[in-house]
# Entry
Amino acid sequence: MKRIYMDYQAGSPVDPRVVEAMAPYFGAAFGNPSSTHVFGQEAKAAVEEARAKIASMIGAERKEDIVFTSGGTESNNLALVGAAQRNKEKGNAIVSSSIEHISILNICKYLSRLGFETRQIPVDNQGLVDPITIERMITDKTILVSVMYANGEIGTIEPIADIGRITHAHGALFHVDAVAAAGRVPIDVGKENIDLLSLSSNDIYGPKGVGALYVRKEARIRPIIMGGGQERGLRSGTENVPGIVGMGKAAEIAVQEMSNESAQLARLRDKLRTKIPEHIPHSYVNGHPTRRLPNNLSVRFSYIEGESLVLSLDMEGIAVSSGSACSSKTLELSHVLRAIGLKHEEAHGSLLFSLGRWNTEEEVDEVLRLLPEIVRRLRRMSPLTPKELQV
Amino acid sequence: MDHFRNPRNVGEIPDADGVGTVGNPVCGDMMTIYIKVKDDKIADIKFKTFGCGAAVATSSMVTELAKGRTLEEAMKITRADVAQELGGLPPIKMHCSNLAADALHSAIEDYKKKEK
# Structure
C-alpha cells in the first residue's frame, strides 16, 4: 500500500540537500564556534554563513539580527518573555490574537501570572485579524503586539504590514510568528514593520530542533536562557552547528525554489479544495478564500468526527490531521476552529491537509478517489446523518 | 482496530423496544443504541456513533457483548468489560468506553420505562 503524507505542518522530512550540507559538521568540522583555534573558526564561519542565508530569506538587513534557538516554540518564548521583561518599565500590556499558535497562548498565560495584562483579539470567520481592532486594543501601556504571519491550520494570511504600522505608531514592539509562512510566501521584515520574527527549521525542510528569532537591532529584549553569552548574549549555549548549517541551507533552497514550489502546491491544494466539495456533499472549506497559504487546506464534513476520519485515512496509508477534540493530546477542540466561529460539532468534523515539497498530483488524485467512500462509511454509522444522506 | 475497521451491528431498529442516546455532538462523542427485547433477552441490538476511533470500536464491542444476554446480565456490562474485550484502551480514550456502556444501560432503562 502506497503511503501518502499530507501532514507537513506537523513534521516534515529534511531535504536531502540539507542533510548533505550538514554532514561534515558532525565529524570533520565538529569544533565549537567559540574556540579560538582553527577547529572553532571553521565552525563559526559555517554558523555565520547560515545566519546570512536566513537573514536573506526574510529581508533582514543585518545578519547579526538573527538569533538561533531550538525551534519555533523557543523563539516565541524568547520574543514574548524577552520583550515583556525588558520593557516592563514602559508598560505591561500585550496584545495578540485568538488564533495564535498554542505556544503564544500559553506564554501569555504565563506572563499574565507574572502580572502582565494579556489580551487576545477575536478574528472574523475567515480567520482575519482586523488592524482597526488591534488599534482599539492598544493603550499607552501596550509594549508588545504579537500576530502570526499566517495560520498553519486554516491558512489565512494576516495583514502584517498594516498591523506593524499601527503597532509602531503607538510605540510598541511587533512580533510575528512566521513558522507556518516562511518558505511559502515572501517575507520582508523591513517593509512589513516587523521587530521580532519567529522561524522554525523543520517547517522549511531543515532539521528539527533548530529555529531562529529575528531581533531588529533597535528592539530590546532580554534573554531567557542564560549561560556563556552566545548569540550576542541573547541565547546562551554551544551552538547546534550541524542544525544551524542545515537551517541555513534550507533557507537558501527556500529562497531559490519558493516561487515555483508554492505555485505547484497551490495547484494541488486547489484541486483538493474544489473537488472535495464537488464529490462530497456537506463539506466546507475553513479559512479565507484567497488570502491563504498555498499548501494547506482545512475542510469540515458534517455529521462525522475528525479522529475517526484520520484513522480511516491512515488505514489507507494517508496521513493527515484533524482539529477534533478526540485527536488532540489535551482532548480540547482546536482553538483556531472555535475562534473562527465554528460550532463544536462542526469543528469536530474537520480535517487538515498540509502539503509539502514531495507531494504529487497522483497522491492528490488517490486521496480524492478514497475520501468519498470513507466519509460515506462514517456517515452511515453516525446518528446525526439525515436520511437523505444515508447511502 | 478490528472493531473500528469492521464494526458489528451498525444501524437502526425502527421499531426498537428500547433506545438509549448518550453524549452529544458538542462534546465530539455521541452514541445511540437500539435494542429489541424478547423473553427478557436482547434479541437484537444496533448502534450508531458520531465519534472517534475508540468510540466506534467500543460501541461495536458493547453490542457484541450484549447481544443474546438477559437484560440483567447486560445491565452489568461495565466500561471496564468493554475496554478489556478490546484488549485495553489508552487512558485518554477510556471516556469513550464509558459512553458505550452508558448507552446500552440507557437503552435498557428506556425499554423498562416503556414496559410499565
